[in-house]
Amino acid sequence: MSGPDDVRVDRVRGVLAGQACGDALGAGYEFGPPLGDDVPVGMVGGGVFAWEPGEWTDDTQMSTVLVAVGLAAAEGGSDLLASLDDVTAGWAAWARTAADVGAQTRSVLTTAASTSAADVAAAARAHLAATGRAGGNGSLMRTAPVALAYLSDPVRRAEAARVVSDLTHPDPIAGDACVLWCDAIARAVSTGVADVRAGLPLLPAERRGQWQTWIDEAEAAPPVAFHRDNGWVVSAFRAAWSAVVRGRDLPSVLDVAVRGGSDTDTVAAIAGALAGAVHGWSGVPQEWRDVVHGWPGWTVAELAERGVALAR
Length: 312
Known about the structure:
Elements: H1 4-27, H2 58-75, H3 84-95, H4 103-111, H5 117-131, H6 144-149, H7 154-166, H8 172-191, H9 205-220, H10 233-246, H11 250-259, H12 264-279, H13 286-291, E1 293-294, E2 298-299, H14 300-311
Helix pairs in contact: 1-8, 1-11, 1-12, 1-14, 2-3, 2-14, 4-5, 7-8, 8-12, 9-10, 10-11, 10-12, 11-12
């Protein structure tokens, strides 16, 4: 018989596994139209970037940098926020050879004066000033490791979620989304219940009402309702939450997410992290455990175990 600690570890293990599975499942359908119920969805790979079957994309690749840096920081007696220079340097090195890098992220990393966190964040603010846009879904897709790094500290977790988001996506709305999603992941690990409303008090008071409306919209409509602009963080958030509330288990959550179309890998990765926190590693089908993998050469099981180590 498993005890409460075993269940909690299973859920922790499920967070990054769920993200990676969603990412890999959606990879072959990215930028495609919504899919009808009669169209099969599987770990087929392919897509615009010719992914291998079961291979995760930039969504999880950027997360692995956070995981690696977070683990190194913990071993050195520090934490993730004290190691942001290593995070941004890791992203910069990854981006030089990555098959896919989000447009906003690539712009920030290539225009920064150096790979330091301060210079990368400054480039992100300059991008916002020049374009008026910094609200892509690129920081939300990679936020799950932040939840694990600060699993038992809600105040520090909210701070870290926003700081890490701001490195490349300084729009306050993107930061809000990361705060809410990280809080929901942490709560799901503890309770087995997904609840994005619980984190609303962590947001500035003047934006809570708008987020409540966006959450209500997500619950009222399927992910396809948000597919036309799900590269925007709010629509990616709504599509992912819509999938989470409609799925009965991890595979059905991810199936619903991918069927929404457009930025399928990112929406399914976001949804998968939260659904994985609810359903755990035990909810990951064996056929996915056998095939899901990706940069920097990890299997999904290895990624899941590193998530457990990060949470400790």
